Amino acid sequence: MSLPVATVIKFPPITKQLALAIAARAFPPHDGQFKCYSQKPDNCLIYCFNTDQPCWYVYVPWEDGMLSLRSSRVMVISRLTGDILYNGSAGDEG
Fold first, then answer.
1. Over 27-89, what HEC string results?
2. Percent of the chain at pLDDT above 90?
3. Starting at the edge strand that comes first in sequence, how are the strands of the sheet with 35-37 ordered?
4. Any idea what the Cα angle at residue 70 is, between residues 64 and 71, rounded to 5°?
5. Considering only CA atoms, which of 73, 93, 91, 92 is closest in space to residue 26?
6. CA–CA separation, 86 vs 77, rounded Å?
7. Backbone angles phi, psi at 40, to 5 degrees
């Protein structure tokens, strides 16, 4: 009788500090006003995006000079690979 093969997923190598550094590299002229969450915030309603992997949710400023009422900008960074999986509206306007 053979035992089933177990799949082991190591602790995600991308730490919060590394996720913030990835976001900072994507936005060189920034003021460091990033907020980082280990789980998707309840008010974060990203349409047409779904992932089953663990991610960091980093809120970054729009930095386009427009002053208007609109959604926050969120960058979703994979905790496994460090890839930016989404960069855009958090869907939290209103």
1. CCCCCCCCEEECCCCCCCCCCCCCCCCCEEEEEECCCCCCCCCCCCEEEEEECCCCCEEEEEE
2. 38
3. 35-37, 55-60, 73-78, 84-89
4. 95
5. 73
6. 7
7. -65, 120
User: At residue 5, does pLDDT exceed 80?
Assistant: no
Tokens describing residue 30 = 């920034």
Torsion sign (Cα): 62, 21, 80, 16? negative
Tens-digit pLDDT profile for residues 23-45 = 888 876 666 688 999 999 998 88
Q: What is the pLDDT of residue 62?
A: 75
